[in-house]
């Protein structure tokens, strides 16, 4: 398995990113599609709108958000498999737009994929 990392979509792309996968349901504000350097946009693997709105990026809700999101991920096994298949031959960088680098879906998804 190659390297799996996470990064804000607003950060400068690098050669080490490998395949860049956006895992937000909504397109990030202020980013032009041609400037995103995306290989894939996996909207469906992002938290549901209901979960995203409930979480509201409140750190005190992160533990429960993580549990709920992992439950949702169980219904997206095709997407999980697709990322794992890419990881067989390429580094993968999961991209997200949230300002909080510690409390977001990319942190949870990376942990889920590494299990």
TrEMBL record:
This is DUF488 domain-containing protein. It comes from Candidatus Scatousia excrementigallinarum.
């Amino acid at each position: 398995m190659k390297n799996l990392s996470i990064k804000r979509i607003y950060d400068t792309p690098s050669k080490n990113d490998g395949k860049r996968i956006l895992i937000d349901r909504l397109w990030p504000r202020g980013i032009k599609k041609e400037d995103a350097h995306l290989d894939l946009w996996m909207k469906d693997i992002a938290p549901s709108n209901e979960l995203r709105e409930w979480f509201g990026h409140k750190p005190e809700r992160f533990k429960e958000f993580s549990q709920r999101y992992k439950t949702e991920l169980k219904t997206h096994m095709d997407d999980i498999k697709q990322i794992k298949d890419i990881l067989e031959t390429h580094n993968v960088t999961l991209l997200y737009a949230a300002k909080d680098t510690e409390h977001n879906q990319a942190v949870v998804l990376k942990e889920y994929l590494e299990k």
